[in-house]
């Protein structure tokens, strides 16, 4: 799914346009025991309660594609016979009406999910009557060719609220606040099936993780059989390793600066595209060639890429680029400049040592003190 398709489904999660028909949930304590189960017609919920659930489910469709939101494909073995996809299809086709199916799903989550504290499993079922679009992208509300039935799941930690004093209007006094078990923002979730090309894609799902460095691979991989891509931080580390191995002794400041500038140019060119900019093996090789890598240095690049990232892997440009800052770091010093002002930095050899030179433009402060750059005496 691209960001436009994610946004289209996210917009359905509101009271006025809501296509959600049913909500189910199971509250699990730290001992993996079910404490509470619920199953309700969504639109029959009290309005304030409905808004709170809507906010939780919107969270499972938030973040960046390739970082918090991951497009996952089911391998063939997960789709055949009694493969891992079977229970998801059954849940969707039952419209979350079959309690035995729900209990089986809850049991699989409880058995698989590595989380030692209390949490709430939430599921909704909805049907989206997909409006047709004109050639220029305008929706035709009275024209529809397809229906998109889906399930959306969020797994939310449940934690005690903080103790403290609160104002009680009835007694007109400050009293000790009672600690309550509060549902937190979802840690992870998924949308099944995926909404690819604005239609049902049974071969894919969209997976959400609030922390892109803690993907809880036991859920997509062990429970659903979907292999995960390299996490965002891992993609950055993989790309850095490829650069260092390719350039070897020639991996200097100017090489790193040129790579930074070229990556940010790619991001700028693709910023309005619904699909995030990605780099496959050939595109990374071309990028390094454009940044000065010789034919000899790239001779074994394909083997190195397969070893570091995987033969068919792609790296998200946003995950490997530093779009917010350009940073130079030593064990004792860290220098950061705006990503588009790398021209302020250069290296020079002074008295036999390589030095970083920073051009001081405009007003300069040191520890909050405005200083005047020293003038060179004639």
The general outline is globular
**Mean of all residue-level pLDDT scores:** 90
Sheet-strand content, in percent, reads 25-35%
Would you tell me the structural class of the helices and strands?
Answer: alpha+beta
Strands, total number: 20
Number of helices: 11
Distance between the termini: 64 Å
Uncertain regions: pLDDT < 50 for 5+ in a row? none
What profile does the largest beta sheet have?
8 strands, antiparallel
The percentage helix is 25-40%
Q: Rg to the nearest angstrom?
A: 26 Å
Structure report:
The protein has about 375 residues and is α+β, with helices and mostly antiparallel strands. About 30% of the residues lie in helices and about 30% in strands. It has 11 helices and 20 strands. It has helices at about 5-10, 45-60, 75-80, 85-95, 100-110, 220-225, 230-245, 255-270, 280-290, 300-310, 315-320, and strands at about 20-30, 35-40, 70-75, 120-135, 140-160, 165-170, 175, 180-185, 190, 195, 200, 205-210, 280, 315, 325-330, 335, 345-350, 355-360, 365, 370. The strands form 7 sheets. Strands 1, 2, 3, 4, 5, 8, 9 and 12 form an 8-stranded antiparallel beta sheet that branches. Strands 6-7 form a two-stranded antiparallel sheet. Helix 7 (about 230-245) runs antiparallel to helix 10 (about 300-310). The longest helix has 17 residues, at about 255-270. It is globular and about 75 Å long. The mean pLDDT is about 90.
């Amino acid at each position: 799914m691209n960001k436009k398709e994610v946004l289209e489904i996210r917009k359905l999660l509101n009271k006025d346009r809501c296509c959600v028909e049913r909500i189910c949930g199971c509250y699990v304590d730290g001992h993996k025991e079910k404490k509470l189960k619920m199953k309700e017609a969504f639109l029959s919920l009290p309005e304030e309660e409905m808004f709170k659930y809507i906010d939780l489910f919107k969270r499972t469709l938030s973040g960046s594609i390739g970082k918090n939101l991951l497009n996952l494909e089911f391998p063939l073995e997960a789709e055949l016979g009694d493969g891992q996809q079977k229970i998801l299809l059954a849940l969707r086709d039952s419209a979350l009406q079959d309690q035995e199916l729900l209990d089986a799903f809850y049991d699989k989550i409880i058995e698989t999910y590595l989380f030692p504290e209390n949490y709430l499993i939430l599921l909704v079922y909805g049907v989206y009557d997909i409006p047709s679009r004109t050639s220029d992208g305008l929706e035709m509300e009275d024209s529809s060719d397809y229906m998109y039935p889906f399930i959306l799941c969020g797994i939310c930690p449940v934690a005690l609220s903080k103790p403290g004093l609160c104002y009680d209007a009835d007694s007109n006094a400050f009293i000790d606040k009672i600690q309550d078990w509060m549902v937190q923002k979802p840690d992870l979730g998924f949308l099944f099936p995926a909404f690819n090309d604005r239609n049902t894609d049974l071969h894919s799902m969209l997976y959400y993780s609030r922390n892109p460095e803690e993907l809880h691979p036991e859920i997509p991989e062990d429970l659903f059989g979907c292999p995960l891509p390299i996490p965002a931080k891992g993609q950055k580390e993989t790309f850095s390793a490829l650069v260092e191995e390719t350039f070897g002794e020639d991996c200097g400041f100017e090489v790193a600066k040129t790579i930074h500038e070229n990556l940010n140019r790619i991001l700028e060119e693709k910023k309005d595209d619904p699909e995030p900019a990605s780099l496959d093996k050939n595109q990374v090789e071309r990028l390094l060639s454009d940044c000065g890598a010789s034919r000899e240095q790239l001779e074994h690049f394909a083997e190195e890429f397969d070893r570091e990232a995987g033969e068919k892997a792609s790296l998200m440009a946003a995950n490997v680029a530093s779009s917010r800052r350009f940073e130079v770091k030593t064990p004792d010093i860290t220098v950061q400049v705006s990503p588009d002002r790398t021209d302020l930095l250069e290296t020079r050899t002074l008295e036999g040592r390589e030095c970083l030179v920073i051009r001081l433009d405009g007003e300069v402060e040191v520890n909050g003190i405005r200083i005047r750059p020293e003038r060179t005496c004639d």
